[in-house]
User: What shape does this take?
Amino acid sequence: MPDQIGSTPDPKRSFGYRPDARFRIADNGSDQRFRFLGAALCLILPLSFFILIFAHLVHEFSATKELADLNWRFIADPACLTLGADSKAGVAVATGAPQDRNVTSVADLVISRKALDIAGWYTFSIPSAFLWFISLIGFGFSVLVIGRRTNRVILGCLLIAICGGGAFTAYTLDHHSDTRSILVRSILGAAVSQQEAPPNVLDIAETTVSWNLYLGVVATFGTLFGLATVAVLARSDELNPRILRQRLSDLQWLIATAAAILILTVVVTKGIVGWSISLLCESQSKALEPVGIALGNYWGAAATGVLGGALIPAYLSWSHDVWRYTEKQLPSASNEDQQKLISSEGLNFNPTTSFMTLITVATPALVGPFVEVLKAFTK
Assistant: This one.
């Protein structure tokens, strides 16, 4: 006989979860054959989407390696001086020197390079600090959400899976030659060899990027596991408004923290690529601007796909439990009466909440275009 609301479940059927937990995952009640389907999809769909979009860009990553052999000219190079009108037709093509840079001496170029270097470093480092901070908060909140439905043993196992899986994924991405890493390493490496940048700038940049990657990916894994925990269908004794409201709140906050992490990842990616490109002569930096824009859009689209893939099964599982609750309370009532019960208990995913959630999920994909529009207006 299924447990009633407020009853104590049989520990033998608790699937290893503590029987006194507010949110328990146990093998009883209705729809038990599909209890963990939503949880599995919260992990499978986002990872599948990311692998798919990553696999489609392998050729582009390989083609980007050709950039590493280019002869980079930096902003302090005398070739970056403005050419006279009578020599533009010939020398500009041969040297790649810009025709519209308002500088008159190498000293001006050096000052311009140093200014862009400082501005670019701030643009990259400040979002990185925010990313570390938000990642730690997001990871801690994910642990809290998971802990609501698990005992210490299962929580410990899931933490190992989160940290291990996240670290392995981050290690794989960190050691894979993608467009960002090839471009940044090539430009900053050349800047160091030509004494256009401090000797340790490449090491600092790569270390910061690695920490961003590891913290961001592990925190994202934590969010996915947190959403998977929310997506597990409720036991019959968990079908009460308090628990359902808590699950809805957890779902919304998990999506919000994950979106913040992934948005900052896009901002940091655009920051470090833009910083590296800004050190080059204007002719080369303008030629590479589309690459920086495309990278921001790529990471934004990947982040939105990951969030959407995790949100949909978690929301559908929660909605199904709300339906089960109304059927249990008002089994023979009309749909209108059931909707009144849902509204009175604060369980309706109203249009405003739905719209804001969708905007949150879509925000990472919108960051890149928004930044470019902002640049256009501020020039």
